[in-house]
Structure formats: C-alpha cells, structure tokens
Structure prediction request, 457 residues.
Amino acid sequence: MEKKRSSFTGKIGFVLAAAGSAVGLGNIWRFPYLAAQYGGGIFLLVYLILAVTFGFALMCAEIAIGRKTGQSAINAYGQLNKKFSFIGWLGALVPVIILPYYSVIGGWVTKYLTVYIKGEVAAAAGDAYFGGFVSNVGPSIGYFLIFLGATALVVLLGVEKGIEKVSKIMMPILVVLTIFIAVYSMTLPGAMEGVKYYLIPNFDGFTVGKLGKTLLAAMGQLFYSMSLAMGIMITYGSYMKKDVSIEKSVRQIELFDTGIAFLAGLMVVPAVFAFSGGEADVGKGPSLMFVSLPKVFEFMGPVAGRIVGLLFFLLVLFAALTSSISLMETVVSIVRDKLGWGRKVACLVVFAGCIALGLPSALGFGVLSHIKPLGLDDILTFFDFISNSVIMPIVALLTCIFIGYVFKPKALIEEIEIGGQFKAKTLFTVVIKYIAPVFITLILVSSVLDAFGIMKI
Ligand code: PHE
Prediction:
C-alpha cells in the first residue's frame, strides 16, 4: 500500500503547515488560564525556559525522525527499532483523547461567534452568561457537533488545503488583533495589577509542591501547544525536504507559537484583574477566556465591541479548525493505515467515535457536573489531564530514552545536518540524554502520586 509521499513546497511551506497545527486553542484558550492559575510570572518564566530547551530538542528530534524514516509515527518508531513501535502507538492515543474535547471548546468559540454576529455584546459580558450556556444540554451538545462536523467535513472532502490557504491570511490578522486587544486590556482601569501578576514572577509563599505542579502544567502545555509527543511532528517531518534546515524551522515555529500564547495571556490576564475578581478569579480554569474577554469587548462599546468580538472569535475559530483538522487527519490516517479502510469509512467512524468520547466533556459543565474524576473540576479537565499531564510526558520520556540510549542522538544530528549546520547540537544531546529523562520522571511520578492521593505535594 505504499503511496508516494508528497512533500511541502519550499521552506516556508513546512513552517506554515506546522505552525497551522501548532497555533490553536492551546495558545489562545489554554495558555492564559494555566498562566493565571499557576502563579502568572512564575508559569511564564518556567514555560519559556522549557520551550527553548525541552520544546526545542523534542521538536527537532520528532521532525528528524519523520524525515529520516519518511514514515508516520507508528511505522517510524517501528522502522528505527521494532521493539519501540509501542511509543508510536502510545503517542497515537493522544489525538484520540484530545480531539473530542478540543471540539467542545471549538464549539464554545463557535457559539461566541454567533453571539457577536447577533450583537449580544452586553448579554455575553454578564457574569452568569457562560455558565448558563455550558450547563444547557441543547446548546452545549449542538455547538460541539457543529465544530466537530465542520472538521470532519473538511477531512472527508479532503479540502484542508483550502482551509490552510484561508488561514494563512487569517493568522497574521489574528496576531495583529491580539496585539490590539492586549494593549487595550492592559490600559483598562485596574489592569496594571494583572500585567504585573503575569509578567513578574512572585515567589512569596511558593512551595516545592506548587513548583512541581507548575512545572508539570507548563510541560504539558508545551507539548500540547507545539503538537509534540503525539506523533504529529513526525508525520510532518516525513513530508519535509532534505535541504530545509530543521533547526531554523523549529526556531521559527517556536517563536510564532510562543509569541501568540504570550500575547493571549497579556490579553486575558489583565482583563481578569480589571473586571473579574482579580487574584480570586485567576483559578477559573477552562472558562477564563470566555468569561473575561466579553467584558473587554463590552467596555469597547456596543458597536466597536461587536466588531472586535466578531472578528476575534472568527479568527480563533480558524486557528482552532486548522488544529482540529490536523488532529483528525492524524487519527483518520492511523485508522486507514492499520485497518485498510477507505477514507470515507474511516472519517465517519472517527467522527462517530469522537461524538461518543466528546459528549461527556460537553455535558460535564451541566447535567454531568457532579462527576469529578480524580477530584478534578470536570470531565473535560480530566481528559485534558490524562493526555497532557500523563500520556504526553510518558511519550516524551520514552522518546528521549529511545533516542538518547538506543538509537543515539548522533544519528538524528546527522539527519538534521543534511539541511545545514546544527548549532545547538550539544544542547540537543544533553537535553535528550540527561536533563529531560530525569526531569520528566521526577515531575511525572510526583504528580501522578499526588493525583491519586498517594502523596500530597
Ligand atoms: N497545538 C494545538 C493547539 O495549540 C493543538 C493540537 C495538538 C493540534 C495536537 C494538533 C495536534 O491548539
């Protein structure tokens, strides 16, 4: 069943496609609420350090594995070493868990887009608005299905290229709009406290336990945001031409991805201090953006608020779609490769499976809100925790051990150097062989013990 692999045209094609997968709800919805929840400046600092070390090394490794083998994740690990193909399988589990609940959040974005289309600027800014929406069975399922359906339709028709083209225009506009909203947010009365909270690390009362949780949250966010530890970058790497510099591409993707996350935080966190309960409200979790931004838009006035709100949610929707499409593509191609099904059948089965898996998350803020798996706030947060804080760190750890000690970094460095000198190869080797394995093991073990109530950190 060997198909000839197509490749990205030129250097910029690869970076744009990978950035399309990387930039999504992770940057705009997830990053700000985690930063708010985990101490603002400390989270930001930890995240940036991890991004330029772990994130960089792991992304280089995954892309190089993909380009070297010319295979997608499961086959790639298998080709390098038969015994290690299970890493690919484990990684393949991640998009299966993420896509359903990602579509729930995508549904929330779709809902807020309709709100601003209708001009309900003041209503959306009300304190109870978001809670009212997510606890209502009909709309919470309806918007989830619309978003998931749109994703499935694009994958089914194979028109990703069209969406990617549109998103190439939308992404830069999103950046400009995010900068605009961030500046506006920062100048709101009372927002300065939030800016300080977000930018200046404050270690007062910061215990080792809190630091451990912050590290785990930041690491999970890094993997999630950069689409790492789930095989996606391996697949992208397999389409990459040999003369393109992996190192430069990774730097560019990282800069873009982290830049947007940083700006999103600057947009959301000060607004929480200006309008909501400030520090009392920073732990709001998944709802944070949907509660605080409408208040910013309302402050702009009914007309300007409507326009900015509409444009914002439209752009976020596109960013979310390019990511959800890349998630679904991955799942569909695994199903096709392994079961030999046609594209249509595979798409429909994945679609149905996602509905089944996503419904509990969609209902977890209403009729199922009494279910709190592992003591986490809601079902969506549970799936989010399992994928980002458990499976992804395990996949990353196994990848580092495999590359560091079985396959050896040298073989990947050679692959990376085909496209030009690899300046950070010492950093790469040290992170993959020593720092990452020790560090990930420590955080992982302590946090899992904590989650299961065996040891309190
Ligand atoms: N990186 C995407 C985001 O930040 C999410 C994603 C993860 C997309 C994995 C594709 C694959 O939203």
